[in-house]
Amino acid sequence: MKVALVYDRVNKIGGAERVLLSLHELFPDAPLYTAVYAPKGASWANVFKVKPTWMNSIPFAKDHHEFFPWLTPFAFESIDFDDFDLVISVTSAEAKAILTKPKTIHICYCLTPTRYLWSGFNLYTKGTSISSFFLKLLGPMLQRWDLVASSRPDSYIAISNRVKKRIETYYHRLVDAVIYPPVQTDFFIPASSSRNQYYLYISRLVPYKRPDVVLDAFNKNGYPLIVIGTGSEKNKLMEQAKGNITFAGSVVTDKELLDYYQHCRALVFSGDEDFGIVAAEAQSCGKPVIAYRHSGMAEIITHGKTGILFDKQTSSSLRAAVEKERTMTFDSELCRTQGVRFDENRFKEEFQTLIKTMYNRSL
Fold first, then answer.
1. C-alpha atoms less than 13 angstroms from C-alpha of 212 in its C-beta half-sphere
2. CA 245, 280, 19 angle in degrees (round to 5)?
3. With 80 as the cut, is the pLDDT of residue 290 above it?
4. pTM
5. 2: Cα separation from own chain's centroid
6. Would you give the DSSP letter of residue 99?
7. DSSP string of 160-217, one letter each residue
8. Which helix (H) or strand (E) holds 50?
């Protein structure tokens, strides 16, 4: 069986990129097709034969894909998959738009329906930036196109039940399975001793992740917070942060990330996350997680036993959850057991089994 992988853009590292690396282990010969490829920011992709589209030659497109939402669909439609038996698109945007012939099975591992067009549309069009202006102008047209593109995969796999509901709501498609992303639980392990003083926030610092809620909460409660990540909101957040909040930047190595997990008091998160690999990693390290109840992270945490779920994306709701956490004692082994449920080997087995079933069904 000849397999190809497709991803929206290869220019950063995050949870989706870890999914691709696990899929590479399942299909080591599969090339990786993408709209744009920036090797400098994506050293993880060195193991792949990466094949970017003609968009890669457009100035600024590699690092500022958000300026070209009307071109990206055409770029994906231009890729020829006639030689492949199976194509797996890993996408939260345009990669599902690829065109395949009936003999080629297209399975979409959906990270979420295109966020800036659906669940996050109001947030992305808020403000006076150039990108917000063009999204307001082009939004209805892009939504119509995205619905057409959403009909092209033969099958959908969702990364969480939260995403499954979004697929059904926005795309009106049935989801064949929910397969949670892989977590390296053999690496993310508890420490033999733990300082447990600071709270930890790990995220891209962009509006839909709601870092403003976390910063405001810890500005008011005064507890030590370490922020790991970078993004468009970083400078503004750093200007607002009080002395109890430390910005550690982007962690370069997994070893550094492990150390932060192992020695924190708890991980905090306020966004409506699709799944939340950072929560599973923290649990795997034996740490409790404080997160928004209406989020994919709620599928990782057992409220009151391995963490706290709060009801509203507000500073006051998060502060109340933190105060509740400070009155409780969490069992590190129970947190670890919760995280191990998302082991990488589990992901590979579930994915491989489902693909074999679908492929055999098509014969």
1. 9
2. 110
3. yes
4. 0.92
5. 27
6. -
7. SHHHHHHIIIII----SEE-PPPB-TTTS---SS----EEEEES---GGG-HHHHHHH
8. strand 50-52
**Residue 156 CB: number of other CB atoms within 10 A?**
22
Residue 268 φ then ψ, to 5°: -120, 145
Q: What is the dihedral of CA 282, 233, 34, 180, to 10 degrees?
A: 20
Please list the residues that pair with 228 across neighbouring strands.
202, 249
Helix (H) or strand (E) holding 111: none
Residue 279 contacts residue 297 (beta carbons within 8 Å): yes
* Contact present, 277 and 15 (Cβ < 8 Å): yes
Q: What angle do CA 175, 210, 299 make, to 5 degrees?
A: 40
Q: Whole-angstrom Cα distance, residue 55 to residue 37? A: 9
- Cβ proximity of 56 and 62 under 8 Å: yes
Residues in the chain: 363
In percent, the amount of the chain with pLDDT more than 90 equals: 80
From 323, 312, 307, select the one nearest 272 (Cα to Cα).
312
- Domains in the chain, please, with CATH? 3-182+344-362 (3.40.50.2000), 198-340 (3.40.50.2000)
The pair of structure tokens assigned to 145 is 């196109």
Bridge partners, residue 91, by sequence: 110
